[in-house]
Design goal:
The complex is a heterodimer.
Chain A: H1 2-10, H2 14-54, E1 57-61, H3 81-90, E2 93-106, E3 109-118, H4 123-126, E4 133-136, E5 146-149, H5 150-156, E6 163-169, E7 175-187, H6 191-194, E8 197-201, H7 202-209, E9 217-221, H8 228-236, E10 243-247, H9 248-291, H10 293-301, H11 306-342, E11 344-345, E12 360-361, H12 367-393, H13 397-400
Parallel strand pairs in A: 3-8, 5-7
Antiparallel strand pairs in A: 1-9, 1-10, 2-3, 2-6, 2-9, 4-7, 5-8, 6-7, 11-12
Chain B: E1 3-14, E2 21-32, E3 36-40, H1 47-54, E4 62-67, E5 70-71, H2 77-87, E6 88-91, H3 103-113, H4 118-131, H5 147-159, E7 165-169, H6 177-194, E8 197-201, H7 205-210, E9 213-218, E10 221-227, H8 230-251
Parallel strand pairs in B: 3-8, 3-9, 6-7, 7-8
Antiparallel strand pairs in B: 1-2, 1-4, 4-5, 9-10
Helix pairs in contact in B: 3-4, 3-5, 4-5, 5-6
Classes of the chains: A alpha+beta, B alpha/beta.
Amino acid sequence: MLLRLAVLNLTRSVRRSVLSMSSVVLGVAVIIVGQGVIAGFEENSIRAAVDGLTGHVQIRPRDYPTEGLAHPIDKLAPVDPALADWLDANTSAWTARTVFVAEAVHGADAMPVRAIGVDPAKDSEVFPRSGWTIDGSEPVSAEDGVLLSTGVARLLELKAGDTVVLQAHTTGGAMNALEVPVAGVFNAGTPMLDRFGVVLARDLARDLLQSGDRTSHVSVRLDDREQTEAFAARLTERLPEDREIVTWIDECAPVLAFQAVRQAALNLVVLALMGMSATGIANTVLMAAYERVREIGTLRAMGMTRAGVMQLFVLEGALLGVVGGSLGALLGAAVVLWFEDRGIELPLALATGHLPVSTILYLRFSLAVAAFSALFGLTTAVLASVYPAVVASRPAPAEAVRA
Amino acid sequence: MSVLCDIDTVHKTYGHGPAAVEALRGVSLTIDEGEFTVISGPSGSGKSTLLNLVGCLDVCDRGTLTLLGHDVAKLSAKALAQLRAQRIGFIFQSFNLIPVLTARENVELALQLAGDTKGDRVKRATEALERVGLADMVHRRPNQLSGGQQQRVAVARALVKEPALVVADEPTANLDSTTGANVLDLMRDMNKELGITFLFSTHDPLIMVRARRILLLRDGRIEDDEIKTRSDLTREVERKALQDMLHNLADY
């Protein structure tokens, strides 16, 4: 009966109840969407690093530069057969790449590019192409030419079927240039690749650099990215002196560190919204308390205790919290799930420097976050109704009953 | 007949200092079980204060008030609430029904607060409404009932828990004379049938006609306390009604 009375009391002024409840709905939805965005950014960064740049673990020359367009080729080395066997046995997939700086020339236009010589047979096992769009085809041999990124193709006004001149220093220091066909134009959704990237078959890289079997990077894909640190520790023991390991965790560190700032900003917004919700609910319950003094007196006369009156008003606040929290959770979940599936296109300007980010942000839904947010809304509503409940229960029955 | 309420030199003051108002100044009286008693007197005479004290809505400053064997001043707020819930029914001038609840739910609420089990409540509440002639209106809300019907619901609510005492504060003040008389007859019947004690505060001659005992309160003191015969009361009421009519005619 008390619950029914609380429900019916809320229906006395539906508009007022809906308005104060809507602040809880909004607050809870913002928490869920905000957390979805933050988790999405985290996943976005990890995916960009794992699928576009390093794989789960990458072996590269020691003291390899990480800023600007710098990819020295003075420390290229063949993959040690023993290491190759070990990688075959202990990884889901691995591949060797040769990354170097070249100049792409088309007519009078030229620009520096990040050239990546890949093993056509194995590269896609470590760096899946599922998120790529390719206009044309990916080269599988030296004769096929190169796959240009959209950034390079746009600046040099090239398209699949055209030819481009790639010139680079060989490992011996001489200048070499090759005119090659453009097999296709790709967009990987990773600005670091899409701005300056040129993908070519390893044989063509060898021809240009005169590098033989030597490569700059070995990238590894694991069954489970959570195994990365343990695997890296085991791999370190097998590394040659002149090589170092970089993992997706290292690559993502700057982005993940920024997550703390995002989280703090979200917390502030949530705090402000929940403060507004609490004020709205407190106001609603307080107004109800002032409007129903005589009823409260009647209930007291009929034997309801002060605690019973407080319980009734807190229950009304809690109901606003339950309904508002649930609706907010549904709304927030709907938004996050919608963009988890479709993604949000980010402005390219967001991806600057060497930060691993993808241009498509997929929000991430978490049931735990949704449940926590709804609970948070409920708690806020309950706490906000305590003071009005105390006020409501304060008048002496004899006074209240004649109010 | 045993004593229901014993009031001994009770004082009650509201406010402090120069603004203090002494509402009751040493009232002493005894109310027996089964009485149908009226407290009368001009406004500000202390009628409502006395009702509040007897109904355990308030406690006195000095003196003792013993109700159903309990020294009320010594009971905690929770114990007072329990006493009200189980042994005292209230009927108010403005009916004081909970507007969002139906007639039956209003009555049921009294049972719930008295601690009755859920299964029994609906049946008892329905029976109480049948007893006051509202069997076909159990699902109506207060705003769908006339004033007289609302007061009947209030009577059912007060009586459903079979209290020892019903405190009624000007129960007919907001009713027309016919409806008021019907409601009063209903209460008188309950008094006779169930032996429930009724204590009214009123100016209404209709109630005074039906009361067996009239307490006249003035300036916080009992000025008159007499048990009258029905013929005495009827004569008094008729005389007063005639005076009022002549007075009104003179004005006209």
